Each structure stands twice: as C-alpha cells, then as structure tokens.
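Hello forum,

I keep getting stuck at the same step: I have a sequence, I want structure tokens, and every attempt I make locally crashes halfway through. Rather than fight my setup again tonight, could one of you with a working pipeline run this one for me? It's a single chain of 303 residues.
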Amino acid sequence: MKYISLSDYLKNKYGTKVYKLSLSTGCTCPNRDGSISYGGCIFCSEGGSGDFAATGMDLDEQIAYAREKVDAKIPAKIPADQRKYIAYFQSFTNTYGDEKYLMELFKRVLDYPFILGLSIGTRPDCLSDEMISFLSQLNKEKEVWVELGLQTIHENTARLINRGYDLPVFEDAYKKLTDAGLKVVVHVILGLPGESDDDIIETVKYLAALTPTLFGIKLQLLHVLKGTKLAKMYEENPFRIYELDEYCEIVGRCLLALPKETVIHRLTGDGPKKLLIAPLWSGNKKLVMNTMRKYVSLLPMGC
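Reply #2:
Ran it on my machine without issues. Output:
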C-alpha cells in the first residue's frame, strides 16, 4: 500500500529531509487549571503529551537545545547550515494564554531562516477568531499547521477520557481553520478503554469524510504512563491493551479508510520509557516500525 508519510510530504515540498524541533510555549490547559476541569485528559502525563520538549528556557535556548538533540541523529554528511526544521509546539494547549505573547512567539520562531514552518498543538475550544486570523497571515509567509487532539468521535469515550468538549466544537474549529486556509492535523488514539476496533474505524471514516479533505492525521497508540489517571484505572481494572500484531492490523484498517491525499504524520507515537507501563513492546521503536512497515507493505495497492 502507498500512503503519504510526513517525511515524504516534506521532502517533496522542500526538496530535503526536514526535522521537527519540540518546543514549549509555557501554556497550560483549561482541562488542568479548572476552567473546564482539573487533572487533564486521563492519558496525559505531567509533560502534557510533550515530554520531549525543553521547558523553562527562552525561545533561543529552546531552539538551540532542540537542535542539539535532533542534530545528534542527523547524518554528519549533511552540513549544519543545510539542515531544515519544523517548529513544533506540542505540550499542553498552545493557544491558551496571553494571545499577544503567543502571537509574538509564533512570529519570532518563523524568523529563523532554518525553520520552514510551524506546527501548533491545541484544543478546538481554545482558538479565538483573532488567533485564527493571525495564524492565517503567518501561513502566507511560512507553512502553519494546527494540530487538534480529537482522539475519538464517540461521546461516551470522550467523557471517560475527560476530553472536555463535544464533537460540534471540533467541527466548528475545523471549518474556521480550513476556511482561513490553514492545514489541520487531527490526533486519534487507538485503543482507548471500551472502544472496539469498529469504533476506531468509525472515527477514522468520519475524518475521511471531512470537507475540505483532512490534511494530516496522527494515529497514536494508547500508552499507559505512570502518574496518569489512566494508569490508576489500568491498575485497578486492567483493560485491553493491543499486542503488536493487533496494533498493526488496526493501523492498516485506518490507512485503508483514509483519503490518499491525507498525510500520515504518525503511525504509533512514543511514550517516555521511564514512564511507560503498557504496552511494553512499544518501547522498542525499531521493532515496532520494522514490523509495521512490513505489515503495511502487504496491504492492497492503490488504496
């Protein structure tokens, strides 16, 4: 099966491999500070799903730190002045805070010549018209993506995971963002407690039917991490956790359900090994990716 990976999309667009820099705005989340609820979504760690980003540094320091970490994995044959990046604000809700400060931060990060674009993780209920308009203007200078953590379309599951908003809120945000010319990446978690494989495919088919066509999707394996409400639930009443072959199968079904134009930004995701409770096989990234590539290569062509 052929699909457009994020790496392929970036290389085709920019003519070179592009790497992500994990950064932090310092924002919290309305699901943590009491505006909606406390404690966040049940799967969310203290890092706010951004455990690999540096915190407590100014922007210049963060970028230098993130580049150092990423560059350690880049082949030495690629000169430092030819390495290109996407700035990724991942932790918590990165449009929830002082908008004037955040707008200045987003503008500043795109001033770096080696940064080709900006990806902002946020919630659909934390996007003002002013912020959307601002990001739309930035998007005319360099590419801007807005990442929304939908996770599921099923309201019972949404309540269980303490998502804090209903599906029409997502739909309204999607329309506003796409009307403004912005690319949207949606996060879906595979393996949430109580959800069947068919429930997951319903969520993916819903996203596949969006108008305009969904730019990007992240398929995220459910990780049970220490210190989360999910970990407590799992300890008290263990729920189904995918085995590797089962996960490959459900990912394959998701890929077959998506439009060919949708960019696959992620097939599994990483959980910090020091926090990972389950599934332990997910800590072996090389094994996971090799197994998944082999499985996906056997799916029907032309889907």
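The first strand starts at residue 4 and ends at 5. If your local run keeps crashing, start a new thread with the error log.
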